[in-house]
Amino acid sequence: MPTFKIYTLGCKVNQYDSGSLKYKLIKNGLKPAEKNQQADLVIVNTCSVTKNAHRKDRRMIDKAKKDNPQAKIVVMGCWFKVYPEIEKKLQADLFWPVGKLDKLIGEITKKFNKELFSNKRNDNDGVKKINNNKKTNRRKSGDGRDIIKSPGQGERSRYFMKVQDGCNQFCSYCVIPYSRGRLQSRAWEDIIREAQEVEEAGYREIILCGIHLGLYNQEENNQQKDKNLTWLIKKILTRTKKLRVRISSIEVNDISDDLINLLKIEKRFCNHLHIPLQGGEDKLLKLMNRPYDVKYFKNKILQIRKTVPTVAITADVIVGFPTESKQQFQQTCDLVQDLQLSKLHVFPYSGHEKTVAFKMSGQVDGKIKKERSKILREISDNLWNEYQKKIKKEISQFEIVIEDITGDTILGKTEYYFDIKVPKIKIEERKLKIGELIKVDVSI
After folding, report:
1. Could you tell me the CA-to-CA distances from 43 to 63, 143, 309 in Å, in that order?
2. 356-390, pLDDT tens digit by residue?
3. Which of 221, 252, 270 is the last residue of a domain?
4. Which of 153, 160, 209, 365 is deepest in the core (most CB within 10 A)?
5. Whether residue 160 has pLDDT greater than 50
6. Which of 270, 289, 320 represents a domain boundary (last residue)?
7. Per the confidence metrics, is the pTM higher than 0.70?
8. CB atoms within 10 A of CB 417
9. Is residue 56 located within the same domain as residue 169?
10. How far is CA 49 from its chain centroid?
11. CA dihedral defined by 182, 183, 189, 191, rounded to 10 degrees?
């Protein structure tokens, strides 16, 4: 049976797409190659968020070719979607943009069927042609997963599920609207069905992912705008019994009072929000084309904290955006400390020629960006340590999803996002599994 490998770069949405593609390939007759085995088909799912991402894409393609010299090579994803001209510069057998995974399977079948399967199969083996007229159990969206393996079988301990794609915001530094397209939400019925399958497979935490997640079902002509993100979370919790839900990232202006209240009252909705900040000064935020100012961001964080005092609030911050002065950078540092954000993901600004910011004057020197990033990461480390100490003083018992079991130690992710290591001796005597949700007492 022909084998395949998928190399994935970029965001959780890209990882979800690769996971979906993996199971579609399996369903159509291919087998994942073993770790050190050369594959017959190699797919590289690329990222285009920064120039550095392009360098990583190229290195990954080179590695894929080196590790699998006889393989057919498919380059897909955001890099090709934004820069179709790379088809003339890179050596690959097939190029594909973003999404439409069933069509990609069909194209692979059409293009490689003879070469992939010659001398490798019996008449009844190999890739099965996609028949769009045949009734199947595929989800309406076409990009959902067809096979869900249990955690611990080469899978993550927690399940990342794409519910939305695309973005209409066009932040001045961001290429994503060009690569992923405009807002597009998956049908809620498909999402619920997948969540139930995930629970049945043994997962106990699901992370909802999207490019602009807070605008789930908010497309201009969508007739189900009332079935928004908060509604979806409630529906998942109602239709499942053991799953806890976490959202991967949400813009501050998309956080409704209903969502905050749900965070307060629903135990299975994880006590963690990741809210991109990007900059802590109004002129910078305007140049970035962010849809809020510092006052709005600050008031919203204070509202969340007042309602849910223990919540972990993590954030993205861009350092060295064009024209960022020393004073503006200091204002960002002061803001994240004043708000006691729990943890920061710090990104040195990387210009992308397809964006407005690339053409701006006042580009910040790389050395300065590196120095400022170091300062902000040190602030983040201190905030994260303080947050964990505070929570562990107030709460002694946590629910963790087991992510690793090594010797006599268990590592798990708490509902508050941080990890906890506990000796097995603290857990009741029974066989534990990756992905299982257990209670641990850190006071003993």
Report:
1. 12, 16, 45
2. 999 999 999 999 999 999 999 999 999 999 999 99
3. 270
4. 209
5. yes
6. 270
7. yes
8. 21
9. no
10. 13
11. 90
